[in-house]
Amino acid sequence: MAETLEELALQGDPGTLTSEDRASKIQLLNPQQLYELWEKQHWLAHEIDFSVDREQWANFSDEERDYFTWGMSGFFIGEERVTTQFSGLLMAYEDESEEAFLATQQVDEARHTQFFDRFYREVIGIDDPKWETRLARVREELNDSFAELFDKALVEANQRLISDPSSIEAKVDYVTIYRMVIEGTLALTGQYTMTDYLEKNELLPGFVEGFNKVARDEHRHVAYGTWFLKQKCGSDPELGALMQARLQELLPVAGGVLVPKGADPNDWEMLGYTAAEINEFAFKALTRRLKAIGVPLVAEHAGNGVAV
Ligand SMILES: [Fe+2]
Ligand SMILES: [Fe+2]
Questions:
Q1: What pLDDT is stored for residue 265 in this prediction?
Q2: Distance from the CA of 56 to the CA of which of 96, 143, 224, 243 falls in 20 to 30 A?
Q3: Which residues contact 276 (CB under 8 A, 6 or more apart)?
């Protein structure tokens, strides 16, 4: 059974708090606490039971199958990207607790990739023996916004950090893209929508079990990002401005990743949820995290915010 959104905030991620007011007062978990939480929350991607999923998948209509294959593709390839584009941040650790937490996160991302790969092989049937071939086939589903965010912005930010792990600017930039845009705004929004639909319709129970565990890990990752950005940007206007600029540039790109294949980018629907509802969910969570960090999305008096 999935945790409620309030329970998930106990992972240290203020994005799921029901009250915006509480976000600015929440005590954020530090990397040592997040590491200890990780030790208590182990799970195994290869122990999830997909037998009911396989039966249900065989009875899906072609349209449903197309839809879910598309919906899950961004997660599968996204998890592969955030696993392989991680090493710059590990090099940029500032103390032992941060290093320990970051090492756990890279393991989490590899586990998430394994989970999606297993689902694609054992339920969807993309089971070529080569990883590269499986990834290339799933990639065919993805749009240009995905490539701009995951193959360009994330890869370049990781390379800048590898070139100079002591650069706080490069670290703030990387954490903003990875934790605030990719995990916090994009992944957790898509995850919430898909899981809600599948749970209400009692579909794909193995997938839902694993996906809820992925989401619990993701909230822990976003909690680290919120803690880190508060330390660095909360009281440094220049670093805060760097973070704001990145968010304003990439939030519309993240919004583009969610647009289903062939749909009107301004007026689409996913599993009965409208673009406006999905954007509102994403925007609310982001606003709470930014409240906790102490940096608004736009500088005061500069406008009305950027919708995703
Ligand atoms: Fe992940
Ligand atoms: Fe993550």
A1: 85
A2: 143
A3: none
Strand stretches in 17-174, DSSP E: none
Domain residue ranges of the chain, discontinuous segments joined by +: 28-293
d(C-alpha 212, C-alpha 133), whole Å:
27
Could you give the CA distance from residue 294 to residue 130 in angstroms, rounded to a whole number?
46
Nearest to 116 by CA among 89, 151, 79: 79
In sequence order, what are the residues at sequence separation of 6 or more whose Cβ sits closer than 8 angstroms to the Cβ of residue 22? 14
Distance in angstroms between the alpha carbons of the first and the last residue of the chain: 29
Q: What's the CA-to-centroid distance between 58 and ligand 2, angstroms?
A: 30
Distance in Å, CA 94 to ligand 1 centroid: 23
∠ CA 17-19-25, nearest 5°, is 80
Rounded to the nearest whole angstrom, what is the distance from the C-alpha of residue 262 to the centroid of ligand 1?
26
Number of neighbouring beta carbons within 10 Å of residue 70: 17
Please give the radius of gyration of the chain, using alpha carbons only, rounded to the nearest integer. Answer: 19
Give the three-class secondary structure for 28.
coil
Distance CA 296, CA 308 (A): 15
Q: Which residues pair with residue 269 across a beta bridge?
A: 274
Give the pLDDT confidence of 170-222 residue by residue, as tens digits. 999 999 999 999 999 999 888 988 999 999 999 999 999 999 999 999 999 99
* Nearest one of 230, 248, 251, 219 to 295, comparing CA atoms: 230
| Phi, psi angles (nearest 5°) of residue 24 | -75, -15
> Does an H or E element contain 308, and which?
none
Cβ count within 10 A of residue 170: 22
Does domain 28-293 match CATH 1.10.620.20? yes
Which secondary-structure segment (H or E) carries 232?
helix 205-233
Closest ligand to the CA of 183: 2
